[in-house]
Design brief:
Blueprint lengths: L3 E3 L5 E4 L5 E3 L2 E3 L4 E6 L5 E3 L2 E3 L3 E6 L4 E3 L2 E3 L4 E5 L18 E2 L5 E3 L11 E3 L6 E3 L6 E3 L2 E3 L6 E3 L6 E3 L2 E3 L6 E5 L6 E3 L2 E3 L6 E6 L2
Parallel strand pairs: 1-4, 2-5, 3-6, 4-7, 5-8, 6-9, 7-10, 8-11, 11-13, 12-14, 13-15, 14-17, 15-18, 16-19, 17-20, 18-21, 19-22, 20-23, 21-24
């Protein structure tokens, strides 16, 4: 804890079945990853500033606790979750205060059953705010998703989400975009959707 890690290939790499604690640290200006979590790792990543890395946090096949981090100015994504990541309980990624995530596509899921950090601000990204890839099914809960240059939330074909109690506004493309074959079981409930240059909700043919 309380470390500054700068200008490395990767800032911190946590691999294997153990639980470390990364907290109150600054991880910045790394060529690839700020933090990599993989291979059954169960580390706790809280109250860090992670900035100016290619990707902020990358986790795969692991169940970390990621909460109350400031992740911004990434070249690509703030949070990247890869295929086959194990399920994470909602409370594991709950956030009691706003975590600002800014980058090119701020939050990116590519696996089954991931949960977004709640109470987050996802804004001013060069592409969409939240990108959910095929097979993923996140719970997107109580976030402010605004002023992104692409969509606020983009669900690609074959993905779904439970989108609840968010403020989604002033995104350049659709605030929420979804649909396509094999796209089922998305729920959009109790959100405030306003502003933007295009549609509030844009959907194309889906299964259900």
């Amino acid at each position: 804890s309380n470390c500054t890690i700068q200008k490395c290939l990767n800032g911190i790499v946590l691999i294997g079945d153990f639980r470390a604690s990364v907290e109150n640290s600054i991880i910045e200006d790394c060529e690839h990853l700020g933090i990599k979590v993989g291979m059954c790792n169960r580390s706790k990543i809280i109250y860090n500033t992670i900035r100016r890395n290619s990707t902020g946090i990358d986790y795969c096949n692991s169940d970390p606790i990621i909460s109350n981090n400031l992740v911004f100015k990434t070249d690509e994504t703030a949070l990247l979750v890869n295929l086959n990541n194990s399920s994470a309980a909602a409370e594991k990624s709950s956030s009691t205060s706003s975590a600002k995530m800014r980058g090119w596509g701020s939050l990116y899921w590519y696996h089954e059953q991931a949960y977004i950090v709640s109470n987050s601000s996802v804004s001013f990204n060069g592409k969409c705010g939240i990108l959910v890839e095929k097979g993923a099914n996140p719970h997107i809960f109580k976030n402010i998703i605004e002023k992104n240059l692409g969509q606020g939330i983009l669900l690609t074909e074959g993905s779904s989400a439970f989108i609840e109690k968010n403020e989604i506004c002033s995104n350049i493309k659709a605030n929420i975009a979804l649909g396509g074959r094999c796209s089922i079981n998305t729920t959009i409930i109790e959100n405030k959707i306003r502003g933007g240059k295009c549609e509030g909700i844009f959907t194309i043919y889906g299964e259900r």
